[in-house]
Description:
By secondary structure, this protein is mainly beta. It has helices at 175-185, 330-337, 400-406, 533-538; strands spanning 16-18, 21-23, 29-43, 46-53, 62-65, 69-76, 84-87, 113-119, 125-131, 141-147, 161-170, 194-197, 214-217, 222-229, 235-240, 245-250, 253-260, 263-265, 270-276, 283-291, 303-309, 358-369, 383-388, 391-393, 438-440, 443-446, 451-458, 467-471, 476-483, 502-503, 505-508, 512-519, 524-530, 541-546. Residues 38-148, 163-311, 425-548 form the Plastocyanin-like domain.
Amino acid sequence: MGSTKTSLILGFLGYLFLDSLLFCSAYNVHHYSFLLRETNFTRLCTTKSMFTVNGQWPGPTIHVRKGDKAFVNVHNNGDYGVTIHWHGVKQPKNPWSDGPENITQCPIKPGKNFTYEVIFSDEEGTLWWHAHSDWSRATIHGAIVILPEIGKTYPFPKPYAEQVLILAEWFNGDVKELIDEATSTGGDPTPSDAYALNGQPGFPNNCSNETSFRFPVQYGKTYLLRLVNAGMNEEMFFGIAKHNITVVAQDAAYIKPITTSYIMITPGQTMDILVTANQAPSYYYIAASPFFDSSAPYDETNTSAILQYTGTYTIPTTIPYPTLPNVTDKAAADNFTTRIRSLASAEHPVYVPKKVTTRIFITVSVNQIVCANASCGGPSGNRLSASLNNISFVTPSTDVLQAYYKSLPNVFDKDFPNLPPYKFNFTGDVGNNTLYPSLGTKARLINYGDVVEIVYQGTNVGNAENHPMHLHGFSFYLVGTGYGNFDLTNSTKTYNLIDPPEVNTIGVPKNGWAAIRFVAKNPGVWFMHCHLERHASWGMDTVLIVKNGPTKETSIRPPPANLPICS
């Protein structure tokens, strides 16, 4: 079933038709239909059935303009419940359509449907949508393209054309069976068998050369690539052979242009990238490879597509391949990420909050849970776990949003702490006393209008690595990062309060820290979690609840009538 798009004209006499969308000077309303069903796919010489939207992998792209609204009717014809999250869309006062399973809604059951109301506000650029139930986002995901308002344009010369590129992971096995097995044994989930660009693993993967995704370009033209990292568990380096690229936006907010030969992008992040076809007409590989500075198992393969010039020329016998950093090259990753700054122009200003009223310090750790008789599949016969402030999140059977809105008892606790239970040398010799977390469904309540600073402190507990942390309901300013233990006196002196990037997903460095700030002006229940799916499954999650403000305009909207039933 394809997507349908309609528009509601709100007080505008002239029309503009672009990309089959009808736009107006106020906001428009678009309608999409998502049919979730099993579909057969063949990759790496392996055929399997996958849970998809409209039989596509990746799924359909949603096209809107800044400030629009989209209604997406999701029909579940699959075998198990699922929800959809609109990653990076703030959903003002509307957590009911945010999507994380048993946080803001219960799953859409097989044979049922639910219509999401996706409210866009100040986002502009590229975001994405994905399933938010177990590991189903491996196959259920797609891009969101948010164009400027009518009468506005990009803060850079208009590109000749645009192309969505989605990085993902292919598993030869059934993804649900893989995570169910890992959950049952307590061991590490099996890594993916390949990465993919727009659904194709490409060279040098088995049975993949002839099916590589191809992006045709004309010599001398500049193109806008909308890159999404929909991968499950690996951060990725990305580049194009013999072509520099210029990054102009991240997470649907413009940045000062960065010209580079490669980027590093974490799961959950999006980047808008300009590339000019200025090399001799030929074929050139677009490639991505993992950045993974850890001892955990990971997918060691690469993925590629082909930048293919139009015209007449001799096809090369050997296609140039980009030189990407080594898999553990932390310096290369930092060299890119530390250059990212908000555009901070008159047209696209930033409002970095200066006076913090709420400070939360969160340790981010991989842990273990003791199993009787060392009977589990993790280290020392234990169960692998993960935590924030040494609390491993337990997903409830009734969603937290309904419990909060209706004051239902015994669903969650309101005492997620501002600090870890005790202070230790977070990035040094941590000993075993921090290895075992407590379990709980805990949320942190925040007053409407508070200026919040959260410091994520990576730890050396368990298996230290980078953690891409994502907060629903907000974009926030990444005001600082560093290695070692955060120090309130000295670390804050390194903050960038002038033009920090405004994002929704940030990488907490291995054995380091990251500090974010935002103003809590979006009332609702908002999930916060690591976007490495292994860690989120193990409990590296919590919930922030922003209380209602003093008026109807600053309060959570009433729930829709057709919310999925919890059972």
